[in-house]
């Protein structure tokens, strides 16, 4: 749910591929074996075709303290993929003529600024202008593990104010989908958890999907972790805060079942599905357009605490893919690209995670603060024994792996830092871009 920080974020250029009904499962297993060997990912992936699972793989532990291994039924928080469920539930209400896309939210939230101009469609499209309460990260991280009432969350959102006038631009905001969650509760006159269960979970027989509560390892629910040399338990956001913006728990098996049913028109009406898929600005309604080679797909991604998730559906081939994770020391987008490349019979590489040994003395020549004329950030390089650590302005520190020849990487975000000690320079590479930094 909360937006993930990296040294610098770039748009991903997606590549093209063609579809094949059969694929090399042995190579894909070898890919995941490599991730497991080098402690790069804990979680599960599933691919389905025509509603039938054709590949599933699970790595790591649901709970490290209890040494509870994960399996295909381990349940993970899916973060902002919850928004796809919430959007579908809103269209359920629209199909039942309880609400409409063009009605304003004034009836529900008279104290929200511009409530008389913001429509339900604006919320769905992230075009309301309402400030994202997770963007105030320093404050948010002080209270995100504590229960909050609707009244308290409305006060927080009201304090955040408006970033732009309604329907003038697109800007992703968790506040939009929290408000939609409250609208659903007021419209159906029941808690969000019951609405989800009644209209989606039970009709589709999603046996491992529900609105989260306190994580319960006895129910095969995963805890989440950050990698800091080893796995460290992450904080646990109280689900009263995100609700339908990021509070749902599921498995990739349930997610491919849900996405297949949704895009086959079995969850909401075909007219409502068409509206969900229509992009306005940057976004559809609870889904994003995901082109992959010459195929047009739709899906969403999510992250909350140490959890990460993504799903995508491609009508051509009727392929549904989902990933849920509770620990990443690697770029999950690379995992998705590998899985889909395998399924669609395209080339991909099994990564080489071998690292070069560096003495603590060797690292000294790289230490310092680097600045660039191209990017308005500074990057401070420190060390922890034999590990180099980078921290950009206003962002958390990340631990780098050495690839030798003065090159260091951070796999999770696809970052490469190449040092030239004699020139006191460093090159940041990410997403096909390069930026030169000079030591101050």
Which features would summarize this protein structure in a list?
440 residues; alpha+beta; Beta-lactamase; Lipocalin; 8-stranded antiparallel β-barrel; 6-stranded antiparallel beta sheet; 26% helix; globular
Notes on the protein architecture:
The two termini are 36 Å apart. Mean pLDDT is 92; it is low at 4-20. With 440 residues, the protein is of the alpha+beta class. It is built from 11 helices and 21 strands. The chain folds into 2 domains: 25-343, DD-peptidase/beta-lactamase superfamily (Beta-lactamase); 360-439, Beta Barrel (Lipocalin). The strands form 5 sheets. The chain has an 8-stranded antiparallel beta barrel with strand order 14-15-16-17-18-19-20-21. Strands 2-1-13-12-11-10 form a 6-stranded antiparallel β-sheet, sandwiched between helices. Strands 5-9-6 form a 3-stranded antiparallel β-sheet. The longest helix has 15 residues, at 174-188.
